[in-house]
Specification:
With 228 residues, this protein is of the alpha+beta class. Helix content is 47%, strand content 13%. It has a single domain, classed as NADH Oxidase (3-Layer(aba) Sandwich). It is globular and about 60 Å long. Belongs to the nitroreductase family. HadB/RutE subfamily.
Amino acid sequence: MSTEQLSSNPFSPQQMDQISQAQQAAIKLKQNAELLSDNALDLIIREARSHNGWLDTPVSDEILAQIYDIVKMGSTSMNTCPARFIFIRTDEAKQRLKTCLAPLNVNKVLAAPVTVIIGHDLEFYKHMPKLFAHNPDAQNIFKHNEMAAKTSAFRNGTIQGTYLMIAARALGLDIGPMSGFNNQAIDNEFFKGTSIKSNFLCSLGYGDTSKIFQRLPRFEFDEVCEML
């Protein structure tokens, strides 16, 4: 680091030591980690299927905690971490959720061991002094800009919901992401009086393969991608 960089360095010696440790850990990770095998890539996305039917096999609290422990480490812009998750497991909770669903999704949710409501906190910035502590003014970017806060919460909450789906598959579960529900009804039922809004739902469990259909087509690279 140059003399000029040192003179303008905003970090304390302790923070510089933490930064150095993080950089060395990143280097070590790249040196030692193996790329995912074809089987692993197939499991989490290439050959994985969304499920509509479920086996009567429970999903433990431990595996749900494992999923979140993976999700929380995924990147979000400015470490905002706006996603909020409600794991619907009990019959009582499923009946509350049932009233918010489109008819075609009712049986899917009732049969699934767990259905997650993935939401996002529009006031995520209140937690930035903890999550982005090295920049104490960061929350002001969003605190007085409702549109910026709304956009960032939705975008990064959606990213975290995707992490959840990949993490679940990586741990051996199947997933069934879905729309087909009334967002306002879910917000009133589960997030009333809060700054949290629902985004999408995802059932988790062990899929009944007798209920899946043929895979639908996908675009080829040249149809939707450009290299500039």
